[in-house]
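Retro notes, item 3 of 5
We never archived the inputs for the oxa(dethia)-CoA complex last cycle. Fixing that now. Sequence and ligand:
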Amino acid sequence: MFNSKIAGIGHYVPERVVTNDELSQYMDTSDEWIKERTGIEERRFAEKHEETSSTMGAKAARIAIERAGITPQDVDFIIFATLSADYYFPGGGVLMQRELGITDQEVGALDIRNQCSGFLYGLSVADQFVKTGMYKNVLLVGAEMHSMGLDFSTKGRGVSVIFGDGAGAVVLQPTEDNTQGVLTTKLHSNGTHAEELAMINPGSHGGYHLGKEKFGYPEDPTFKSIFVTQKMIDDDLIYPNMTGQLVFKTAVVKFPEVIKEALDSCGLQSSDIDMLVPHQANLRIAQFVQKRLGLSDDQVFNNIQKYGNTTAASVPIALCEAWESGKVKEGDLVCLAAFGSGFTWGSALIRW
Ligand code: UT7
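Structure as it came back at the time:
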């Protein structure tokens, strides 16, 4: 058995900076409210019709691949995590493969749909493949293009001010040094509150979970396409919804819990963590987790101020910036953790 190590890391964020003040031109919100409740100062929005989650993913991937000292042709497995895929199907993995110009290799591409914890789930899957020696260069990417699917009217302000676009990527390779690389990953889920942070439509539910009437399904849907109904569009039921306080309250419990679980399984304590890179959901959540674990400011990396919540991309973008700025160094114990829609959550410990 090998350990898997992050051999290369990269990130990409679109050029367009969208400030809180700009958002307040489209909806009833303010820079003060957004900063106070979330810590976010600005976010990036991709160029509509020119960029997608898979093209941004490919840009981050190219950097990670180069830094790993390999070429795109050397990638032997692709894992792509997003909630904002270019198409409903197929997933973004094959589109990114095509964008990278490596279709000739015909390597496997796995799509991960675990939203904010997508990168952690992907890391765990990649780790299993590398550990067993099955793959030697696994490309793992988290990428999001939220700006295409948010409600920028006042009705959507509780959700839309939070999210931003971007992508982060890593290449995982085997190492025979079992004190290095991914030490453990922990994954959890609980579907009880699946709809409390969700984009329900379009979907194949047909009203099953929440009632046919709510979505405007016709009485006799035989042979009629009902994937999207007019009522969904008219009633703005095609946007993500979130019960923010429930998500917040659950997150501040699950983050420390799953981090502690990882530490315990390795015989480590929170004081051993050199750098915690939490999913960038809300600065207040990260600060709460920091306090609960007794970590100092230089043991936690946050960049939500610049990018908002980029969901599956947030952990690799933050990890990449932490590494680029010298805040993650060889030998450091790095802890990654995420919580989000599903609810799903997870953690990882990496000896850098
Ligand atoms: O990564 C995915 C996981 N997601 C999360 O982790 C998100 C977790 N939750 C949160 O981050 C917070 O709950 C939010 C930032 C989403 C909301 O903050 P909050 O402090 O929980 O506010 P709230 O939803 O309780 O709303 C408080 C007030 C309401 O007005 P009233 O009813 O008190 O008059 C909202 O209508 O703030 C209002 N509000 C806004 N006001 C200005 C909600 N959104 C906005 C806004 N601008 N953007």
